[in-house]
Design goal:
heterodimer; A: mainly alpha; 2 strands; globular; B: mainly alpha; 7 helices; 2% strand
């Protein structure tokens, strides 16, 4: 078990973090930064990924339509990796690390490889599904324009229509697929 | 200054996600299987309480309006949400919690992140084609950047202009918090 905060304490603190983000800067979002990371790597090998463009709203454009969109906002961040959104997401690793360091019960080697529901099927099977899940999740999030943090948490906090639509889609697919996919697995941990 | 804030907010967000158990795919999977609703309770409460506080701050003018950012609602939000939901169920992470999982030492989370970089990369490459081939996927729904409770920010519309926005926001927030309180933690399946 890794739950340290119950729903009331955890919900209140997590809610305080969303609120703090809006009060100080802007709503939290994560999935965009996967695109920015890809762009940063791509930018090393190509000169056309992020180009300065005085006409564009954010001063940048790209040969790639997605990086060029919204006045070159993504292209600008690709060319300047030390920006708010990217550093915020990098700091999230450190937040998870910090929490795990102060945790008394350490993860077993088995637990690090797969959660209980995947235990019988072996780690390579788990890694494959984690990889597949990651690619579908991020493709879907980019098509939707946000993920759990941007659409669900920050979006519904601001009562955005898009946030409710995203949450509806995610659970409408996620619940039946999880029930079906793990149907032979034993109950709650 | 914004980089310092990025580090503080990212650390706090990552830490809080790990403390509530969101970095453990078992909890996400069992939530989607409707067997352990701990994380659903956390998220509902976090959204409810932060939304209530946000709209009180908006009504009293304590928040910089330029910090409000509403994402557009369009067909792709629902379709993307459905694809996201499949990956969410199969992988057991979302774009934020996988980072926290890696930070907390989970190896399967690394595979989710790698898959995510591929999924985001594929979307970046096919975006131009997708938009040209299925333009209706990107058509706004109900005006696009709209909220249920009017934020008072000119560039974002409210769906219900004749009801005070604080009343709408408070109503939804109370519903979310009530749901967080009343949902059972675990089902005996």
């Amino acid at each position: 078990m890794q739950i340290k905060w119950d729903w009331l304490k955890g919900g209140a603190i997590l809610g305080a973090v969303f609120l703090l983000a809006v009060v100080l800067v802007k709503p939290l979002g994560v999935s965009t930064q996967f695109v920015i990371f890809d762009g940063i790597v791509w930018n090393i090998f190509s000169d056309d990924v992020a180009k300065e463009d005085e006409q564009a709203k954010h001063g940048y454009t790209s040969d790639n339509a997605y990086l060029a969109k919204s006045g070159g906002k993504y292209a600008k961040n690709v060319d300047n990796p030390i920006n708010y959104g990217f550093i915020m997401v990098i700091a999230m690793f450190a937040g998870g690390f910090l929490s795990s360091v102060i945790q008394k019960d350490k993860l077993s080697d088995k637990e690090k490889e797969s959660p209980k529901v995947f235990r019988e099927t072996g780690k390579s099977n788990r890694y494959m599904y984690a990889f597949l899940g990651g690619s579908l999740t991020l493709f879907g999030a980019r098509l939707a324009g946000g993920c759990t943090s941007g659409h669900m948490m920050s979006g519904m906090m601001q009562t955005s229509l898009s946030g409710y639509l995203f949450a509806f889609g995610a659970f409408a697919a996620g619940i039946p697929i999880a029930i079906f996919f793990y149907r032979s697995k034993k109950g709650a941990a | 200054m914004s980089i310092a804030l990025a580090i503080i907010i990212g650390l706090a967000f990552g830490f809080a996600l790990h403390r509530v158990g969101a970095g453990n795919p078992q909890h996400i999977i069992n939530m989607l299987r409707l067997q352990d609703l701990h994380l659903a309770k956390v998220i509902l409460f976090a959204i409810g309480i932060s939304s209530l506080a946000l709209f009180i701050l908006l009504a009293t003018g304590f928040i910089d309006q330029s910090h409000i950012s509403i994402k557009a609602a369009y067909g792709g939000v629902i379709v993307g949400g459905l694809i996201f939901g499949i990956g969410f169920a199969v992988g057991g992470y979302c774009p934020g919690t996988c980072l926290v999982g890696v930070g907390g030492g989970r190896k399967d989370a690394i595979f989710f992140v790698l898959g995510g970089l591929i999924g985001a990369g594929v979307f970046t490459l096919v975006y131009g084609w997708l938009k040209a081939t299925f333009p209706s996927l990107f058509d706004n729904i109900a005006g696009g950047k709209v909220t249920l409770a009017d934020t008072g920010v000119d560039k974002f519309g409210g769906l219900f202009d004749n009801i005070p926005s604080l009343a709408i926001a408070a109503g939804i927030a109370i519903l979310f918090m009530f749901g967080a309180w009343k949902l059972p933690q675990k089902f005996n399946v």
